[in-house]
Amino acid sequence: METQETIIVTGAAGYIGSHTLIELLQEQGYKVLAIDNYSNSSAQTYQRIKQITLATFEIKELDLCDYIALQKETNHLSTIHAIIHFAAYKSVPESVKNPLAYYHNNINSLNNVLRLCEERQIKQFIFSSSCSVYGNTHQLPVTEQTPVQKAESPYGHTKQIGEEMVAAFANANPWFSAVVLRYFNPVGAHHSGLIGELPLNRPNNLVPIITQTALGKNQLTVFGNDYSTRDGSCIRDYIHVSDIAKAHLLAIHYLSKQRHKTAVSLFNLGTGHGVSVLEAINAFEKVSGQKLTYTIGPRRLGDVEAIYANNTWAQHELGWVPKNTIEDMMRSAWKWQQTLESE
């Protein structure tokens, strides 16, 4: 592809953003502008990405809630091919405790990025959404036609609002098209072991808690063993972060080749298989050889009982097929944790 059009990646130093940056940089022809304010990430991640890809890219430290700063730091770009918007706060329990921070950050930042699309006529947009928009659905597996329920957390609600904002903007601007990707539960790390999930504060997600617990750096609690599931623990659709990252590149191609049938195309990104919390723990123990100590705690506010995807539509339209098993996910996460320990 002979083009030097720029793709802007917001939240580029974050977990999914950083893995997607690798995919973009390994695709010949794109220039990339990476934007992050490092509120839950580190600028050091970019050095790891350069080590993996041997590529150069432009970096801006920027709070997307500041539209004037966003304008200023993107004015020099002659052609912006697309924006991939990851930047958002993402912790369910934190959003329950501090909802206003989530509404302020997640909605205002998206509003500003869409304003930039309007001002600069940026025609292609990829929005990072979540299976949390489905709420506590009883329709399994979840398809893109599954009705959206009341969100179980302010985080999930901000993703519902975000999707509605993208749809409203697309309806008002016929030149604009978007892909909304609803992730299920991203886990694991790059196969190199050089980048992975790096929460700056105590992690809220299961897999980094598991890997830290294996080293005696954290305590693992299974929140509830009395759900109506096969072993009483919550069921999730864990999906390798590199598989999710590849979907963003496919989404760019999908819009560029004008294969989309509607202004906003919606896809579930999951393996299609539910894995319980206890099964995930067992998978880690199997691949690592580490025996985990954990306690059973009460149910956690904001958690849904079970959710997993039907990914047929993403396979059919994007050509996206996840490659990694739950064992692959745990093995890569453990390799990343060991990388951190060796530094």
Summarize the structure.
This protein is an alpha/beta fold. It has helices at about 15-25, 45-55, 65-75, 90-95, 100-120, 155-170, 205-215, 240-255, 275-290, 310-320, 325-340, and strands spanning about 5-10, 30-35, 60, 80-85, 125-130, 175-185, 185, 220-225, 235, 240, 265-270, 275, 295. It is built from 11 helices and 13 strands.
Class from secondary-structure proportions: alpha/beta
How much is the radius of gyration in Å? 19 Å
Elements, N to C (H/E): EHEHEHEHHEHEEHEEEHEEHEHH
Share in helix: 40-55%
Q: Largest sheet, described in full?
A: 7 strands, parallel
Strand order of the largest sheet: 3-2-1-4-5-6-11
Strand content: 15-25%
Number of helices: 11
Spans of 5+ residues with little confidence (pLDDT < 50)?
none
Q: Termini distance?
A: 38 Å
Strand element count = 13
What is the 3D shape?
globular
Mean pLDDT: 94
Characterization of the model:
This protein is α/β, with parallel strands linked by helices and 343 residues long. The protein has helices at 15-26, 44-53, 67-74, 92-97, 99-120, 154-172, 206-214, 241-256, 277-288, 312-318, 326-342, and strands at 6-10, 31-36, 58-61, 80-85, 124-130, 177-183, 185-187, 220-223, 235-236, 238-240, 264-269, 275-276, 294-297. The strands form four sheets. The protein has a seven-stranded parallel β-sheet with strand order 3-2-1-4-5-6-11, sandwiched between helices. A two-stranded parallel sheet has the order 7-10. Strand 1, helix 1 and strand 2 (31-36) form a beta-alpha-beta unit. Helix 1 runs parallel beside helix 2 and helix 5 packs parallel to helix 6. The protein is globular. It starts with 5 loop residues before the first strand and ends with a helix. The model has no long low-confidence stretch (mean pLDDT 94).
